[in-house]
């Protein structure tokens, strides 16, 4: 576990602040970035901005010479405002308006993901000569806690045709990409995807003399939640082995797009107990209602997908509770099946600390559902 920010320091920092809030330890993000560069020395890192687009985080990663993967013109504008050049940015969203392609091109972006014929044609028109990488559908797997499965990517047969089309239309058929699903706990998923890319690259070379020069392995690297996963070192050594096995010394440019693994462990969401109650006299279990829920930070507890570590300052005996948020939507229940053990003497006003909440929390919160304001983030240098 990598929480560099101890719970005592966290309590001291957040004590006088109104809940809910997120505290981000920027030093941890820097450590995570450096660890990734050490473990994947041959890879260029493109931070997936959507995980946490806070300007403090973007500036820090900019100072570390990171590249950025963006999904919209709004994210692009944020980076341009910081002075990040278009040459360090990829437009990784395969679902994009033609007008946005033109905007990215005008701002100097020359690296684009695609997975459809219409999009390739739009790119040829609005981003001529740009580098294109085609995204493959992932294989079905249940080992990603937050799968990205069917919406993005295309079959290998279609990817072949799109690469050929891209070349024909004057684009540079640069690479292939995949995303094995976020918080992917089965490292072999990278092995499968790398093998499929290698087979496709070979076919393109042999039948069309098209040389694939780049492989974008997406995100999926883990943060530290309750379900166990292998350490990042093991991910890296296995993935580097797969790359070597499939591509040998092809001098392929490698890209990774970490979001969660860079940002999540740096953050703690501090929330306060609003009520502890039961649904009938003497009944069980206890319901614990807190002031953060699915609409203000905890969206990834949808279907209880991400199982956060939750810490209380109280240390007495515990039992299992149902944990729910503050809004008037019955969907705003974080954990009902998953066992959440909290102290028996937990009372209104007590605080809970939800660890590894630095990714897909603040950026994913609703604007003002039920009038609750967006959750605030504070940064520790
Ligand atoms: C969301 C996303 C990522 C980041 O994935 P993580 O699992 O958070 O690391 C990377 N690439 C693309 C294209 C994405 O959409």
Automatic annotation (TrEMBL):
Coiled coil: none annotated. SUPFAM superfamilies: Alanine racemase C-terminal domain-like, PLP-binding barrel. It comes from Sphaerochaeta pleomorpha (strain ATCC BAA-1885 / DSM 22778 / Grapes). The modification N6-(pyridoxal phosphate)lysine is found at residue 50. GO terms for molecular function: ornithine decarboxylase activity. Belongs to the Orn/Lys/Arg decarboxylase class-II family. Gene3D superfamilies: Alanine racemase (3.20.20.10), Lyase, Ornithine Decarboxylase, Chain A, domain 1 (2.40.37.10). The active site is at 328 (proton donor). This is Diaminopimelate decarboxylase. Keywords: Lyase, Pyridoxal phosphate. One of its GO terms (cellular component) is cytoplasm. Pfam families: Orn_Arg_deC_N.
């Amino acid at each position: 576990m990598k929480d560099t920010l101890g719970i005592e320091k966290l309590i001291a920092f957040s004590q006088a602040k109104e809940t809910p809030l997120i505290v981000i330890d920027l030093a941890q993000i820097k450590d995570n970035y450096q660890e990734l560069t050490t473990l994947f020395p041959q890879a260029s890192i493109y931070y997936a901005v959507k995980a946490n687009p806070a300007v403090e985080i973007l500036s820090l990663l900019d100072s570390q010479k990171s590249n950025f993967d963006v999904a919209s013109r709004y994210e692009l504008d944020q980076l341009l405002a910081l002075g990040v050049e278009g040459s360090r940015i990829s437009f990784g969203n395969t679902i994009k308006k033609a007008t946005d392609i033109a905007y990215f091109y005008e701002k100097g972006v020359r690296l684009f993901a695609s997975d459809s014929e219409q999009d390739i044609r739009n790119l040829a028109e609005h981003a001529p000569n740009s580098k294109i990488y085609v995204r493959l559908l992932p294989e079905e797997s249940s080992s990603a806690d937050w799968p990205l499965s069917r919406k993005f990517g295309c079959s290998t047969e279609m990817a072949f045709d799109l690469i050929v089309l891209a070349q024909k239309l004057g684009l540079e058929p640069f690479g292939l990409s995949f995303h094995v699903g976020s918080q992917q706990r089965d490292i072999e998923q990278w092995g499968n995807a790398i093998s499929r890319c290698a087979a496709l690259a070979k076919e393109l070379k042999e039948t069309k003399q098209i040389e694939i020069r780049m492989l974008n392995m997406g995100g999926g690297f883990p943060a530290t939640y309750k379900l166990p996963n292998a350490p990042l070192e093991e991910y890296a050594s296995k993935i580097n082995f797969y790359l070597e096995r499939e591509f040998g010394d092809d001098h392929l440019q490698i890209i990774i797009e970490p979001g969660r693994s860079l940002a999540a462990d740096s953050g703690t969401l501090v929330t306060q107990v609003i009520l502890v109650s039961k649904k009938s006299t003497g009944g069980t279990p206890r319901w614990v209602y807190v002031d953060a829920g699915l609409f203000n930070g905890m969206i990834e507890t949808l279907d209880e997908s991400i199982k956060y570590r939750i810490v209380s300052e109280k240390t007495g005996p515990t039992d299992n509770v149902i944990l729910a948020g503050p809004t008037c939507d019955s969907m705003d229940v974080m954990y009902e099946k998953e066992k959440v053990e909290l102290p028996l003497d937990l009372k209104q006003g007590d605080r809970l600390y939800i660890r590894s909440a630095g990714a897909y929390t603040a950026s994913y919160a609703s604007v003002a559902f039920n009038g609750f304001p967006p959750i605030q983030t504070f940064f520790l240098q």
